[in-house]
Amino acid sequence: MSRSLCITSAEGHTGFLIAELCLTDPNFADKLGSVTCLSLHPNADSCKELTKLGAKIVSHKPGRLRDTVSALKSIGADTMCLIPPTHQDKFDITVELIEAAKKANIPNVCFLSSAGCDLAERDRQPRLREFIDLEAMFMSSKGDPSTSTGHSPVIVRPGFYAENLLLYSKQAQEEGLLPLPIGTNHKFAPIALGDVAQVVAHVLTGEGKHGFSDEHRGQLIVLTGPMLATGDELATAASKSIGEDLQFEDISEAEAKKVLHAQAESDDSEIQYLLEYYSLVREGKTNYISTTAFHDITGGHPQEPPDFFKVYEQDLHPKHSHKKRKR
Question: Which residues form the NmrA-like domain (predicted)?
């Protein structure tokens, strides 16, 4: 039976990569009858790219629940990948999407949350803590007899995306620095976005008698990378991969905010989210890895930091280096 899949926030990096994988990898594409992408920015380059790959793009105009429900019903999706958007009104838009999925009676829903949200404090990391409220809202449909949406739910909590480290490529290229406000003692385990997409695509296309595969259905899946690292250890891994010396610099949160505002495309809410995650690292709340689910679901091993840095070597390579590169 082929699925009719709807992916929200398709214009963002996460939504785009999941959609691209579902459309191009035969392991997933062959199980999908259609892929529709709900987008706040339907004319974005990423949406145009997905159209070329065979996705249908539907404009999402948040603010009117009835319209969002109508859009979902017109798609006719039986499966949904619900990704909170990168937007200052992320919480309200996601609440509306959760409610709309229930009213549109979509049985199989995979909700992307965030690792660390359960350890975040409401006063210190409010943007991260919001995900706990959203998870509770999403899970409440489980006992709601008026909808089939709670019938086959999955929550995926990805950790810190390794790609966020590329926001500091300017410092890496010009000064040979990796500046992060994470302190010097505690560790975290960045995960490659592609690894998150792999797990989610397996979930979205897994089949069981109740919808999603029984191996995934009802699961709370926490995903981190396979290597716990301090800032120094990340810089060392990057140095080995690109054949150049990169140094970690522990910077203040105020300085980090300035750097991110200066060179990131992210909006204020996304910058706040990143700063809150860094504060979790400083508090020692990210000193763990969670890769068992990745192994169980994909049968593979998540990307190690040296391999990640190798892929993005050109983004990090110092422009004014006079050193002979190692081979």
Answer: 42-266
